[in-house]
Known about the structure:
Blueprint: E1 14-15, E2 20-23, E3 31-36, E4 57-62, H1 79-90, E5 98-103, H2 105-121, E6 127-131, H3 149-159, H4 164-168, H5 170-188, E7 202-207, H6 215-219, E8 229-234, H7 240-243, H8 245-260
Parallel strand pairs: 3-4, 3-5, 5-6, 6-7, 7-8
Antiparallel strand pairs: 1-2, 2-4
Helix pairs in contact: 1-2
Amino acid sequence: MNVVARRTAPPANVVAGGWLRRYSPTADVRRRLLVLPHAGGSAGFFHSWGTAFDSFTELLVARYPGRHDRLGDPCVTAMDELADRVTEAVLPFLDVPLSIFGHSMGASLAHEVALRLGRRHGRVPAALHVSSRRPPHRLTPRALHEQGDDALIEEVRRLGGTDESVLGDPELREIVLPAIRADFTIVGTYGPRPADPVGCPVYAYIGDEDPGTSVKDMAAWSDVAPAGFHLDVLPGGHFYLVEQHEPLLRAVRARLGSADGAPAPR
């Protein structure tokens, strides 16, 4: 969880009004991957993905408000608003096939963005990749956002994937807690919703020791995937994608190539 604030101007590769960080733009882009971070997360968590793909693949990572140089931007606390804003931000980048990857809260967001692109704009994504999150019709929201700071921090620690030095420092905690609370408000007020299908293949990923999402839960994403579904179970917990960085990226790279009909990236 990388949400420590930096009061600096946005980097040059920040686009779409600050909503997206753009990695490795080239003159010969053949495909794009939009990555949507987890609750409390930031684009910085996926920084290593910026150089993980071939020169024909452009990476876009969502930058949620209320963190880093967006510290002064009001946090979003509703899934529908967040999905609307991210969908709007990605519209200029649909000239080539777009796949979407979302982890945890980002998986729900990815599904909502995919639905909006298809229903409102007639642009079905090439593929939807969902990680460590139940599908919309199997969600059982928890009202952690209504509890005190200590309860929120305890849940963040339980899930893992967060720098303990941030959680243990009172000054840093004060900076990051508004974004964490906003994201947990999104998680706690979203779902259950109908299993609305998307028109593209769905690929699901889960750690075999995830404390909050089971393999059976992830398998239920098949209910929204009439165009095809595959589930990968990898060793690890909720943040398996840290330890299983390379196996996960290999799977995503191969599927990016198959989604747009081009040779699979290496």
